[in-house]
Design a protein that fits this description.
Blueprint (H helix, E strand, L loop, with lengths): L1 H27 L4 E3 L1 E3 L2 E16 L2 E5 L4 E6 L6 E2 L4 E5 L2 H36 L5 H33 L2 E3 L4 E6 L6 E2 L4 E6 L4 E8 H4 L7 E6 L6 E9 L9 E9 L10 E17 L4 E3 L2 E7 L6 E5 L1 E6 L2 E6 L6 E3 L12 E3 L13
Parallel strand pairs: 1-23
Antiparallel strand pairs: 2-22, 3-12, 3-16, 4-11, 5-7, 5-10, 6-9, 7-8, 9-11, 12-15, 13-14, 13-16, 14-15, 16-21, 17-18, 18-19, 20-21
Helix pairs in contact: 2-3
């Protein structure tokens, strides 16, 4: 009986000891860590852009009257097609007509004065031949004749100018084009040369886009850009840089770029909104968030998820460039590697992990 009691007691003690050891072992095991990862994908091209812009004419003119006056007619508006010689606007002709009437009267008066001076000079010359007048008197009549003829020529020039200004009361198109802007309305008083309408030549179109000043230096001047309509991206054309603004806009810090379009489709109408971008081939590399890089002892490395997806291993990499929150890796990765992109400083070699439901999508690796 005593032996049985001792055996039962030893079994109880052993069970209690094993029960006490099991929680200690469980507490010592590190917890499984959830991680966010990205799938390594080689990038062999880089996209410059996209940037928004518009289709604009290469040639356009701001048309205005050569004289001042009050607008009494405006025959066109934005979007109208105009022909060479077509009237665009008109000024009140009353004042120019008064000026023409005055100029005609001045010519008549100057002509009469010139004829009288010429007759006086002729009579004085005959009297001079008979010795009835002095040479000084003859010289005075000659001077009066020359002055009268000069005044007649001046009055005739003023008349010609007044006649021309009658024609300036109507503004006509100098070429076939389309009205892109109107700057005056009926009843408005204008000064000479003030813009009334802007007419563009639609046959030569180009893409105009504003690019941040800090990106202009990275823009290839000889690149062939893809220019597509924002409303219909499949309609596109090829553009080359024709002009780069020498200075940046003081408010937006952007510079205006003008691109010549090669055979643009008819859908590229003036004022259409477009998207401009450029794809360039580069040496293959991998793009990852900078949070994926573990830097220690002057070396860079990343954590690679094992094939089973439950552990990580450290692998050295070589960084080619850093741009903002992302880095480009020249070597160390292969396509399809699963790379941990967060919490890299809290992982250990062989650490048990649990992957996130979906990988992180890195900008620039989704393809064009």
């Amino acid at each position: 009986m005593r032996h049985r009691r001792r055996a039962a007691a030893s079994i109880v003690v052993t069970a209690l000891a094993l029960g006490a050891c099991k929680p200690a072992e469980e507490a010592a095991a590190p917890p499984v860590r959830p991680v966010l990862y990205a799938i390594a994908k080689p990038v062999e091209s880089v996209r410059f852009g996209p940037f928004a812009g518009t289709v604009e004419p290469r040639y356009q003119s701001q048309l205005g009257f050569q004289i001042g006056g009050r607008v009494v007619a405006r025959d066109v508006t934005v979007g109208d097609l105009v022909r060479k010689g077509q009237r665009l606007a008109a000024l009140d002709p009353v004042v120019p007509r008064f000026a023409l009437t005055r100029a005609e009267a001045d010519v008549a008066d100057a002509r009469a004065q010139a004829e009288n001076a010429a007759a006086t000079e002729a009579r004085t010359r005959r009297l001079m031949e008979g010795g009835n007048v002095t040479q000084a008197q003859l010289d005075g009549t000659v001077a009066n004749r020359d002055t009268a003829q000069a005044r007649l020529a001046q009055a005739q020039s003023s008349l010609d100018k007044a006649r021309d200004q009658i024609g300036y009361t109507e503004l006509v198109a100098d070429f076939d084009g389309v009205v892109t802007q109107r700057s005056a309305e009926v009843g408005q008083d204008l000064t000479a040369g003030q813009t009334v309408v802007t007419v563009a030549r639609p046959e030569v179109r180009e893409a105009v886009v504003d690019i941040p000043d800090d990106l202009v230096g990275a823009m290839p001047k000889d690149g062939r850009f893809t220019v597509g309509l924002q409303s219909t991206p499949e309609i596109a054309a090829t553009g080359t840089v024709r002009e780069v603004a020498p200075f940046a806009d003081s408010s937006t810090r952007t510079r205006r770029i003008r691109l010549s379009l090669e055979n643009p489709p008819p859908a590229f109408r003036l004022g259409a909104t477009i998207t401009v971008s450029l794809m360039r081939r580069i040496a293959p590399h991998f793009i990852l968030p900078d949070t994926a890089i573990l830097s220690a002892d002057g070396h860079d490395s990343v954590w690679i998820v094992g094939a089973a997806g439950d552990a990580v291993a450290r692998r050295p990499v070589e960084i080619a460039e850093r741009r903002g929150d992302y880095v480009g890796l020249r070597s160390g990765l292969t396509a399809g590697d699963r790379v941990v992109v967060a919490g890299v400083h809290s992982l250990d070699e062989g650490r048990k992990i649990r992957l996130a439901d979906a990988p992180l999508v890195v900008p620039g690796t989704q393809g064009p």
